[in-house]
């Protein structure tokens, strides 16, 4: 599986796009596998120890289409994780 990350999650991966083994499942399964591979990303994606839902500010796409945690993901899919980016001035 290939995942493209944005914002602070990139500091956890060291790259914009990373690949890892994933046998297919749900978006929740794919994100959990990603966090297993890149544990530093956990704090940017989940609130506390509850891994049932992502932070409300995190957006996920599967092959370019917006997805929910329950949506199915094939093993060869491309995911994008976009946490909210904060900061800046007007």
Automatic annotation (TrEMBL):
Domain of life: Archaea
Gene3D superfamilies per the UniProt record, alphabetical: 3.10.20.30
InterPro entries in UniProt: Beta-grasp_dom_sf (IPR012675), Mopterin_synth/thiamin_S_b (IPR016155), ThiS/MoaD-like (IPR003749)
Pfam families: ThiS
Protein name: Sulfur carrier protein ThiS
Organism, scientific name: Haloterrigena salina JCM 13891
Lineage per the UniProt record: Archaea, Methanobacteriati, Methanobacteriota, Stenosarchaea group, Halobacteria
